[in-house]
Structure formats: structure tokens, C-alpha cells
From TrEMBL:
Pfam annotation, one family: L27
Domain L27: 57-114
UniProt key word Nuclease: no
Matching CDD domains: SH3_MPP4
Transmembrane spans: none
Keywords associated with the record: SH3 domain
SUPFAM superfamilies on file: L27 domain, PDZ domain-like, SH3-domain
Gene designation: MPP4
Protein name: MAGUK p55 subfamily member 4
Domain of life: Eukaryota
Calcium among keywords: no
Domain SH3: 195-265
Domain PDZ: 131-197
Length: 284
């Protein structure tokens, strides 16, 4: 529905004024409505928004960070002068990289987490199944689970008011947990399910020595697609500490966080994005 502008509203008021004199039913009410100050204010806001939408700037590129790296490589091959060395230093500075990363985030509208693709083995009654993605950093999940005394299913016992699960509006008491982070929970104890929340399955290969953004390549943890990683520290928003389940005695290493992993995927460094998720089946 097209909203009339202020100029068209004035023309409508003139016509309605003539109709009001003829006592046409309902015209007087509509005439008073169009003359109201709040409606005129809304129409002015609408015109301002339309003006902004018509003139808002479009980003020249969605991959400014990747373009900066290409420029640095070209400058490295060029004859070295004082200006080129200074430009390389600026492009490689952490603050400038952070600025370009912020630009790419805004340009790509990368504001919300992305759900992983639906699994292939969804049961026929797919309406009873839903996949929930909760991005969990340092804050607790805000929900408790229990085992059903009769069926043995793992269900959500309660959702804590104001917690992460409550604010998301995606988890409800009585929901049956089918899968957590890609791991089926059938037959597991609630304590085992809680431990799964600290583990993730790698959805791509990662080699720290090939990642120029990692703070210290020697401290990175290389892994291959399908390996299970235990997350031991999430204090850094971009670089988590983890170790492989196959070698828990080894020291933890740095891996990209979910947010950083998604950004790298948008820069075509990764084969597909990954977000930890809870696969739930409603018991109702």
C-alpha cells in the first residue's frame, strides 16, 4: 500500500472539505483525521525515510579486508620506497584492520547468527522438529534439563526468566532435546548433555599458519573437518581456546570464534559457516 505524501494529502484535504459541506457520511471524520497533528508528523517522518532510502550510500565493496591484503601483497612486490613502506605499515596496522573488518560487517549486514542447514534425515513429522541456534559466549544458557522418568527423553525442565534462552524465545519447558551441536542425545544422561555444550564439531579444515589474522600462528590449533573440539575458553570475542577430544592431554590452542569464523566464510576462506545449535523436538 502506497502512503500518500504531504502534498497529495493537502489535495485530498481540499476535496474532502468540499464533500464535508455536502454532508457525505464519514467524510467529516476522515477530514479531521487527515488534519490531525500526529498524522501530519508521521507523514513527514515517512517522507524523510523515503528521502534517506533514495540517497543512502551503497558500499563500493563487501570485502574491504580481503582487498587490503591483496594491496599489501602487490606493494610487497613493487619497488620499495619510503611512501610504499609507510602505506604497507598503515594497511597492516591492527587498528586499520579492525576498521576494515567493521566496514565489512556493516556492508554485509552481518548482524545476526545464521542457522546451519537442515539435516537430511528429518523425520516425516517435520513440523514437530525445529532447529534452534543460540550464540553462547560467557553468559549461561539460562535453562535446565532433566530426564523423563517414563520415556527417558532429555527435556527442558525450566527456562530461567531473563536468561539467554528466555530472551531468545526459542526454548520452552517441555521441549525434547534430540541433538546438541550435531551429537544425538538419545540414551545420554543430563550431565553428559551439558558436557556436549562445551564441544563443537569442525565444519571445515583450519590451518593457523595460513591465517594472517591469527594473533600468533604458533599458538593456533589446526583441525580438520569432522573433528570434535572441546572449547575451554571463550573470553576473547574473536579467538577461542580449544583442544581436540582425541588428545585432551595436549595444550589448548587458538581457534576462530563463531563470529570470526562466519566473517572468514564471507571472505571465501571457508567452505561453509558453522554455528553451534540445539536441535529440539517439541513434546507437545
Amino acid at each position: 500500500m502506497e502512503v500518500p505524501t504531504v502534498s497529495s494529502k493537502d489535495n485530498a484535504l481540499q476535496e474532502l472539505s468540499l464533500l464535508c459541506k455536502r454532508d457525505v457520511n464519514g467524510v467529516g471524520t476522515l477530514y479531521d483525521l487527515l488534519r490531525s497533528r500526529w498524522l501530519q508528523a508521521l507523514l513527514k517522518i515517512y517522507e524523510c525515510l523515503q528521502h534517506y532510502l533514495g540517497k543512502r550510500p551503497d558500499p563500493v565493496t563487501l570485502q574491504a579486508r580481503a582487498l587490503s591484503r591483496e594491496v599489501v601483497e602487490l606493494l610487497h612486490q613493487a619497488p620499495q620506497s619510503g611512501e610504499i613502506k609507510e602505506l604497507r605499515r598503515l594497511l597492516r596496522s591492527p587498528h586499520f584492520k579492525a576498521l576494515l573488518s567493521a566496514h565489512d560487517t556493516v556492508a554485509q549486514k552481518d548482524f545476526e547468527p545464521t542457522l546451519p542447514p537442515l539435516p537430511d534425515n528429518i523425520p516425516e513429522n517435520e513440523e514437530a522438529m525445529r532447529i534452534v541456534c543460540l550464540v553462547k559466549n560467557n553468559q549461561p544458557l539460562g535453562a535446565t534439563i532433566k530426564r523423563h522418568e517414563i520415556t527417558g527423553d532429555i527435556t527442558v525442565a525450566r527456562v530461567i526468566h531473563g536468561g539467554l534462552a528466555d530472551r531468545s524465545g526459542l526454548l520452552y519447558a517441555g521441549d525434547k532435546l534430540v541433538e546438541v551441536n550435531g551429537v544425538p542425545v538419545e540414551g545420554l544422561e543430563p550431565e553428559q548433555v551439558i558436557n556436549i555444550l562445551l564441544y563443537v564439531r569442525a565444519m571445515t579444515d583450519y590451518w593457523p599458519l595460513q591465517d594472517p589474522a591469527i594473533p600468533c600462528a604458533d599458538a593456533g590449533l589446526p583441525f580438520k573437518r569432522g573433528e570434535i573440539l572441546q572449547i575451554v575458553d571463550q573470553n576473547d570475542a574473536f579467538w577461542w581456546q580449544a583442544r581436540k577430544v582425541s588428545d585432551l592431554s595436549a595444550c589448548a590452542g587458538l581457534i576462530p570464534s563463531n563470529h570470526l569464523l562466519k566473517r572468514k566464510q564471507r571472505e571465501f576462506w571457508w567452505c561453509q559457516p558453522f554455528q553451534p545449535h540445539l536441535c529440539l523436538k517439541s513434546s507437545m
